[in-house]
Amino acid sequence: MLQINIKKQLGKLALEANLQLPVQGVTAIFGLSGAGKTALINLVSGLTQPDEGFIRLNDRTLVDSETQESVPTHLRKIGYVFQDARLFPHYTVKGNLCYGANNVAKDEFNYIVELLGISHLLKRYPLTLSGGEKQRVAIGRALLTDPDILLMDEPLSALDLPRKRELMLYLERLSQEINIPILYVTHSLDELLHLADRVVLMENGKVKAYDSVERIWNSAIFVPWKGEKEQSSVLTLPVHLHNPTYKMTALSFGEQLLWIHQVNAVVGQVVRICVYSSDVSIALQKPQQTSIRNILFGQIVQIEMQDSRVDIAVLVEGHKIWASISKWAQNELRFTVGMNVYVQIKAVSVV
């Protein structure tokens, strides 16, 4: 468990956080520029000190203003990957990787190198590397210090789009294969969806919300950050079965099934999907003889009147799905909160 209970005045920004984060998976620190995201992980790393409060990692106190205890940065067992790679230009890639590593076994070194796809770069110097390659080396260097937690401060922000997509694939694999918790600072919705398990939503130095990606994304509090003209729902569901005949995959939706285009995942493996509200319709009775494969039973839990449409949230097996309908349809069908309905999902995007 990572416990953060701090206050820090940074110019006009009053940073304040009280969090208990599990030491597994990827927790995204998300918010607009100037929200205090980087300032928060700098406090965890020891690069800055809190004015008040404490930070504890696995019951080990990193800093406590009351007892005046503060573990030096280099003794905190924390890996840090900055926005820029910060490699030593006079060292080869291998030299950079080995810097700070403590008696790393050859097998472990080779595993990290292969995981990040940098084995062919070991003899090269940073000047000859692309931005994405430099960041992969920086990540490898951080991992080889045997950290208890990995901090990543917008590692994709300085890369062009092709390099971002390339490094994103490595980060996805990394998050699935290493047993090290990651605090990942970002303001990118794409990175949030692809990489994070949980989200700390920050605004003006304060923690506005903390929960799973699905719950944060589907909540009303997150609407301003999505910047979309329509609602969308993010769902994380396990694979139930594959239908090779039609190249489709069924996801378990409680007692119901949601069909998507076939994915390369084993039964039981979770898949994250995104459903846009314009691809969802609502019916009072179960539609018959329709080409739409996904018809799910649920209950209306929220209705939001917009300028040109009505957004309706339907709770299906504990998951919220948004649908956008016309005001004409709402006036005619008179949907109300608590009403049992059927949702038809026309399209699903796998994240």
Automatic annotation (TrEMBL):
InterPro entries tied to this protein: AAA+_ATPase, ABC_transporter-like_ATP-bd, ABC_transporter-like_CS, Mo/tungstate-bd_C_term_dom, ModC_ABC_ATP-bd, Molybdenum_import_ModC, Mop_domain, P-loop_NTPase
Annotated Mop domain residues: 289-351
Residues covered by the ABC transporter domain: 1-229
Pfam families xrefs: ABC_tran, TOBE
Cited SUPFAM superfamilies: MOP-like, P-loop containing nucleoside triphosphate hydrolases
UniProt KW Membrane keyword: yes
Keywords tagged on the record: ATP-binding, Cell inner membrane, Cell membrane, Membrane, Molybdenum, Nucleotide-binding, Translocase, Transport
Matches recorded under PROSITE patterns: ABC_TRANSPORTER_1 (PS00211), ABC_TRANSPORTER_2 (PS50893), MOP (PS51866)
GO MF annotations, alphabetized: ABC-type transporter activity; ATP binding; ATP hydrolysis activity; molybdate ion transmembrane transporter activity
GO CC annotation terms, alphabetical: membrane
Record-given protein name: Molybdenum ABC transporter ATP-binding protein
Native source organism of the sequence: Rodentibacter trehalosifermentans
Lineage: Bacteria, Pseudomonadati, Pseudomonadota, Gammaproteobacteria, Pasteurellales
